[in-house]
Amino acid sequence: MKILLFNPSGALRVYSKSKIKVAVPIMPSLSLAAVAGALLDNGHDVRIIDLIFSDAGSSDECVKSEINLYKPDMVGVTATTTLFHEASRISDLAKSISNNIITILGGPHASCLPIEALNASSFDIAVTGEGENAVKAIASRSSGEAFTGVYFKAKIGSYRADSKIQRTPEIPVDSLPMPALKLFDASKYFCPRVIARRNPVGPIEMSRGCIFNCSFCNKTVHGRNFRIKSPERVIAELRELKRLGYREFHVLDDQFTTDINKAKAIVDEILKQSINMTWNLRTGIRVDKVDEEFLRMAKKAGCYQVGIGFESGNQKCLDAAGKGIRIEQAFNAMRIIKKVGIESAGFFMLGLPGESVETMEETIRYAIKLNPDYAKATVLVPFPGTRIFDEYEKKGLIKTRDWSRYNFHEPSEIYTHPTLSWDILKKYYELFHKRFYFRPAYLITRFWNSLLSGRLIYDIYSGYRTFFGRK
Question: How many CB atoms lie within 10 A of CB 166?
């Protein structure tokens, strides 16, 4: 089969009005690379089109041009909930060129709302969970058990869906095909200096699954069963990244340090094999999983920054969200991180269950007292597939299913918060960042750090864009 895979242009535009628009990672789509790797291993002809390099006005023309030139048998799109409308548009364009093109939707939105997604779009097929084996089976026109976790809008050619559809089985991570990152041009991708030291930056996942129970998190793709790759497999992927010209890697796992001993074994192998790449553990470490020995090993192996999910400065809000951490653990985690000397990026959330003006004030004071190198706050968005969405929907609090508005980088009145107005939530979204970054002590420290690292002009520019510049 000839298969064309698209990454929607909105994957970058969702950050345009956020407070982190100067720190947006621009990297190849690892999910499309993973699916493409499985298809290539099975003998199919695959291309990936990354629409983030086209603006909103030209992406339609780009889609039509690529389909007319390549004449694919199948078009696949990956999409979060926020990008579902754009993914649907790609399917519409493919069908307008030829109704014989089979269109497939994958990613978080398809995994949590497959039937609704099919009914609301021209997609023929929705794949839930991990898509490598499922898409390979579809492309090979397999049937029966191979189609577990695959939803069909109707009978399509020789395809046949099982009457009892279950979630796509999890795949042993060391048996996954190598991601086909060779289908991307590494030289096109550039990450800002706030989150990168050496460009281009390549993505890698070292584990899949998350065992924790946060009510705001969607677990429908990789599930709750934690699986970590062997050190040998990770080294093989890193060597491939280097071969393709990437000079730094970012770890995209939900929770790489869940099994700290296995995480240490991977970092130890990176040291032994002299990989010599800088890297960023930016998707985060839980505060109850911060380990000094691991961080010292990681720093020695080239890690310069870690993200930490602090969420709230109020213990009752943390408990209501099912975060499963204690405030005192956060202070201990920051003490260790500062002692080791790795940069920190703190993640916070406003509008958690039970939130009030007083608890948001607590969170701002908490962020200032923790004093990470960078801090980012978002307003809670109850995404489909999360426990909080189900709870709010039962209570009649969900106000719209216009998924394009489900963007926590641009707060929008998509639900009725039980205790707060949207004007207050938006106010505190702005206040959090102004009060954290405009402290004299922070500005002085940032000035000297920027001066010593040679990033002063860039950091001034980034600060201006964050608080005063347009998108």
Answer: 11
User: What DSSP character marks residue 235?
Assistant: H
The letter for the amino acid at 196 is: A
Confidence class for position 468, pLDDT limits 50, 70, 90: low
Helix or strand or coil: residue 129? Answer: coil
Beta-strand relationship, 227-228 and 207-208: antiparallel
Expressed in percent and rounded to 5, the helix, strand and coil fractions of the chain are 45, 15, 40
The domain made up of 2-152 has a fold known as Rossmann fold (3.40.50)
User: What percentage of the chain carries pLDDT values higher than 90?
Assistant: 76
Q: Which residue has the tokens 């990026």?
A: 345
Nearest-CA neighbor of 6 among 106, 99, 100? 106
Alpha-carbon distance values, 467 to 154, 290, 429, 431, 434 (Å):
50, 32, 12, 11, 8
Residues 6 or more apart whose CB falls under 8 angstroms from that of 211 comprise 224, 225, 226, 255, 258
Residue ranges of domains in the chain: 2-152, 185-437
Cβ-contact 280, 305 below 8 angstroms: yes
CB–CB of 91/105 below 8 Å? yes
DSSP single-letter state for residue 151: E
Token pair 């260790």 is found at 336
Contact 246, 201 (CB under 8 A): yes
pLDDT at 162 over 50: no
Q: 22-51 in b/e burial notation, b at 16+ Cβ within 10 A?
A: bbbbbbbbbbbbbbbbbbbebebebebbbb
Q: Quick count: other Cβ atoms within 10 Å of Cβ 194?
A: 20
Percent of the chain clearing pLDDT 70 (strictly above): 91
The pLDDT tens digits of the residues spanning 267-280 come to: 999 999 999 999 99
Q: How far is CA 224 from CA 69, 217, 218, 255, in A?
A: 41, 11, 10, 11
Report the Cα–Cα distance between both ends of the chain, in Å, rounded. Answer: 40
Tell me what the mean pLDDT of segment 129-150 comes to: 81
Residue 258 has pLDDT above 50, yes or no: yes
**What is the pLDDT at residue 149?**
80
CATH class of the domain comprising 185-437: alpha beta
- Give me the mean pLDDT over the 417-446 stretch: 93
